Amino acid sequence: xxxxxxxxAFRSTIQLPPLPTALTLASIGLVLAAFAPLSxxxxxxxxxxxxxxxxxLQTLHALRATESQPRILKMLLGLSRDREIxxxxxxxxxxxxxxxxxxxxxxxxxxxxxxxxxxxxxxxxGAATIEFPSTxxxxxxxxxxxxxxxxxxxxxxxxxxxxxxWQDGPGQQSTKLNLELQDARIVSIERIAIIADHLxxxxxxxxxxxIHSWLDEQHRHGIRLRLLRESDVGTETDLLNDFGIYGNRAxxxxxxxxxGRTIRFVLSFDFAKLRQAEAQWSxxxxxxxxxxxxxxxxx
Length: 299
Description:
Elements: H1 6-13, H2 19-35, H3 38-66, H4 69-80, H5 83-101, H6 105-126, E1 129-132, H7 135-146, E2 153-160, H8 169-183, E3 188-195, H9 211-220, E4 224-229, E5 243-246, E6 250-256, E7 262-268, H10 271-287, E8 289-290, H11 291-298
Parallel strand pairs: 2-3, 3-4
Antiparallel strand pairs: 1-7, 2-5, 4-8, 5-6, 6-7
């Protein structure tokens, strides 16, 4: 298929006056200037100005109609360099063409809603972010990230509002994975636990069970732990988040229900989001205390 350039499209859109017509108008103007009365010349110039104005307006309209073509052409050329994305783009374009052929209004309404959802997800991915609505789907990605080559440091902030935090099946599997990777020295793991005040009374040295046992097991496997109460952050409530920093690669934000079960997980590979998470980590270390220091107080 022959590719149409933007300049060709521009020329086809704007109807330029033929050269013979322009020469004829110029000749008539010269004759009138030499022999016709001034009033006739003035009238002729007025007509030429109207013609020029009309042509200018047509040109501006054509420019507006074709100004998006270079952008589209640039986008298509960029997509063609990525074979996988180009194949997805072609498949999506074919599907949209078939949707456009449908005339049933109910189908078109349902398709529009579904396509709008796809657009929103695509825009999120365009920002280097992927959202996982179910626990099982993100646990698979969680393990894939921790086992990925080149990842040697995993920093986790656990915002614990329930005694059942990570006590269900998927949570226990994730804990087991952490211990396995730490024991094998594949990944060095550090964790800051933000614990709700009702789970760590002011007069108690450690949080209540089973949170204490969950933390103590990690400490015994070499995971470096720091603890703080929820109230310790004071007015800096923006620190009350549950997230993980995967080396210098990505940051994952976990949203849990009141029972401590994950209901949504957002994974971002955006460098700015990663730096923001690292800044939050540094701020949390100021308010937290080492679990090893608490053990020393016990003895």
